[in-house]
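Hey, resending since the last one bounced:
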Amino acid sequence: MAAPEDQDFETRLANAKDSSLGQVLVKAARLVNERALARVQAVPRYQALKPRHLAVIPHVDLDGTRVTELAERLQITKQGVGQIVDEMQDFGMLHRVPDPEDGRAKLVCFTEQGREWLFDGLAILSTVEADLREVLGQAELTRLRRSLLKVVRALQSEDA
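The structure tokens again:
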């Protein structure tokens, strides 16, 4: 049994987390990701995909991204990214092509199959959205999407 001061700490921490927009966004993203991953892995051709593979996908630009840039974005080593990219090449999702700006460098790009799989992933995410629609209703879900798009645009413009 937790000591009263531990229960007080847990309550204060839970309240602080619930009051933090950043914490709520991070937790919501994690939970959406976990639910989507479970649904992805239920599709036979995607069973080999792991969270590390899905974590790379949003960081690969459509015109290609260098491994060093992916490592920066994911906050992992170039070797770690290289291994994940190798695995995703084996799945047929990604491939490496020469960087037109630097012949010594390679860009990680989606294969044609990988580009199609992006739409499969979005379809799976729409099933998670349907779950949320049941809880929030269409109007609130639409407002949430619009608000989150404003957040994304604001944060992207600050990064530029």
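The radius of gyration is 19 Å.

Sorry for the duplicate.
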